[in-house]
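Below is our example:
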Amino acid sequence: MLGLPSTTEVGKRIPKEAFYRNLKLDKRTRDEFVSLIDRITIANSVKPSTANLRDGRKVHEILVLLMTLKGCEVPYRAIEAIAKGNQHRLVFRIEGVGATLVVHGGTHASDTIERIVLRGEDLDAAWNSIVAQVALGTEDGKDVDARIAAEKRRIELQKEIAALDAKCRKEKQIGKRNELFAKLREKEAELNALEKGE
């Protein structure tokens, strides 16, 4: 699956009940397991014995879970609960929807990934690269947490700028308009600095 080496293939189905029976879940999350998920299969297991990678300091195994849904709605709460309750790093491939998700400081999804590249010499580097592929669209896993935070801030700034621009255009009072315009310029300068990597 996802272009990973055949030595990593597992194909073991896990009853979804095993997840929600052993995890402490709220009602909405338990309902997602029951009403949205049809089945969960361990598609691949990436570890030193199955891939040409050394064991990592933090990451010892990366599992690819193939999730078959009953419909088209992605069960984000259930995915986060599975990731939180599991010691391994997990890549979720949603069958039918064609989405690939990872939970790493939040849930990141991509609907354009057909292959995952195992980049790096150990499992820590490979995991960072996988997160970068899903969250940022690049194989470079260097400083992935900082880059994800910067991307999140960039998106927030773009929204803030659009909202301030709209308020500025609607404001009738000159004093308030000037105040909004000053805030707008401040946010634009922050965005510009962020995009230049300053």
In short: Residues 147-196 form one domain. The chain has two domains: 6-142, 147-196.
